[in-house]
């Protein structure tokens, strides 16, 4: 790449920051233009490589995201000119897409943001719905969307679904192969197709938010940019689909959880557990907005999973402290949630709530019943919860063993620091 200037390291940091923020929009815009995800990924990588070469010499442009998009488009055109067979195949896909819908308006300014007057006024959201095509298996299309369009890494997607990283990679490859073989066009779904695809899109948004709320790895506990992007897209969906109660439920859930963001870490970035948080730092207007959405989500028919989860979050936010939280109601809501979407994580959270309602022994018995669940073996909150309950029961050597296991599995520095503190306290008392 040639000799770099002294500003190369800061420029590399700038490229990384821009790419992390804009990757999803960049890929979505390129896929919408060229109709091929593999091509979009390849030319995106080319554009980043070009930025690393040119920005140290020329400086970071005023609109770095637009610069990357323009560069990637030029690389894509160059590739298509060199590969006529490839271009012919893409032309066929474009014809199929045009038969299904009118051509999108020409992109006039190289901006990465969608047309605010369209039915889906966001390129990324359009591609989320596109990848929720019913011809793709549920787990494949969600993995593809999270990995390629939402910008999550393979380990982050694996954590979201408690599966090995190799499984995620296989799902992405399988989804791409299906798109090619079935000639699934990258087009905006018709209005009558949206409800069928909505659950997959909601799952994607919640997975993005979850990674923002509790990062899989790194120096920070929270990735606020991801959480806020998921909320932004959730607001768009709420405006577009006001009658969909699960949209209201998910948006309410995200707002009620995100409202605690300022209290979840200390000034040094250290993790602050729920019972130690300064609830005066919680965002009360956001909580009120979330509570109104819970009402909308639970009114007019049977509750959906996101509405129930939002109701649980609202009970936490309404309490003055941990002890005054309505734990019986939370347990009852977890019973409903487990009936709607049984999962080991729901069972874990219910066990913790039972421990708060009935005591640590009752909660530990439920956690022990989950000991054979393979998806929890690499999930550090399970081991940490066991450590907390064993500590409350005075079973300190067992608590220390559980904390050590959680420490090995935890992904972020703040989580590891918190677990080391708890482990140190247990070892001191046990000694």
TrEMBL record:
Listed name of the protein: RNA polymerase, sigma subunit, ECF family
Domain DUF6596, residue spans: 197-297
Membership in a protein family: Belongs to the sigma-70 factor family. ECF subfamily.
Domain RNA polymerase sigma-70 region, residue spans: 19-84
Keywords: Sigma factor, Transcription, Transcription regulation
One Pfam family this sequence matches: Sigma70_r2
Top-level taxon: Bacteria
Any one biological process term the GO annotation gives: DNA-templated transcription initiation
Entry keyword annotation includes Transcription regulation: yes
Tagged with keyword Heme: no
Residue ranges constituting the RNA polymerase sigma factor 70 region 4 type domain according to the UniProt record: 131-179
UniProt cross-references to InterPro entries, sorted A to Z: DUF6596 (IPR046531), RNA_pol_sigma-70_dom (IPR014284), RNA_pol_sigma70_r2 (IPR007627), RNA_pol_sigma70_r4_t2 (IPR013249), RNA_pol_sigma_r2 (IPR013325), RNA_pol_sigma_r3/r4-like (IPR013324), TPR-like_helical_dom_sf (IPR011990), WH-like_DNA-bd_sf (IPR036388)
GO molecular-function terms, A-Z: DNA binding; sigma factor activity
